[in-house]
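stage 2 :: seqdesign
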């Protein structure tokens, strides 16, 4: 699977991505802005474990952000369940040499388009640590709206911090009249 945007793409992960994954993911500046499940330092064993999970997914929800020659980041989507079954949460990271070029914004737009076209979703959301102003701007430029500041919700690098909830809601959602629900 591949979604092109300019000279970059969201594409399925491959075993060939392991060297680039180790080279770019092993960066404290990236680790500070993602969940602790993303290890630091990031080793070859971590890359192998990750690729074991995501290579050959039946319904892709994890993608490499890639240049023509290599993976330069990652984008993931977690499909929610139960009463949130029409919601997906996205997360992403981009190699530091590629920051500030609009690549993350374009990748977010591409994954949202993919999510709405391929899954029965009405909402895509993302959580951002309070100090990650660049990621907040990425989401805003991609059309997401800040819905909440979740006070002291996350602990990262020994600090308990606020987290921001951003969401993009599919336009034109039909409200089920049989439940007496009408549009706002």
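stage 2 :: out
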């Amino acid at each position: 699977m591949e979604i092109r945007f300019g000279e970059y793409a969201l594409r399925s992960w491959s075993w060939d991505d392991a060297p680039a994954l180790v080279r770019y993911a092993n960066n404290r500046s990236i680790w500070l802005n993602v969940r602790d499940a993303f290890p630091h330092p990031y080793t070859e064993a971590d890359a192998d474990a990750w690729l074991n999970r995501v290579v050959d997914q039946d319904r892709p929800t994890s993608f490499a952000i890639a240049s023509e020659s290599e993976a330069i980041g990652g984008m993931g989507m977690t499909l929610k369940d139960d009463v949130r079954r029409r919601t997906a949460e996205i997360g992403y990271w981009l190699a530091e040499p590629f920051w500030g070029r609009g690549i993350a914004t374009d990748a977010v737009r591409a994954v949202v388009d993919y999510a709405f076209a391929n899954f029965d979703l009405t909402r895509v959301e993302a959580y951002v640590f309070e100090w990650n102003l660049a990621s907040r701007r990425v989401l805003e430029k991609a059309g997401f709206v800040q819905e909440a500041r979740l006070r002291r919700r996350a602990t990262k690098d020994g600090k308990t911090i606020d987290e921001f909830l951003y969401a993009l809601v599919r336009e034109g959602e039909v409200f089920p009249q049989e439940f007496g629900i009408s549009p706002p």
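stage 3 :: structure notes
- Residues 2-171 form a domain with the Aminopeptidase fold (CATH 3.40.630.30).
- The chain has a mean pLDDT of 94.
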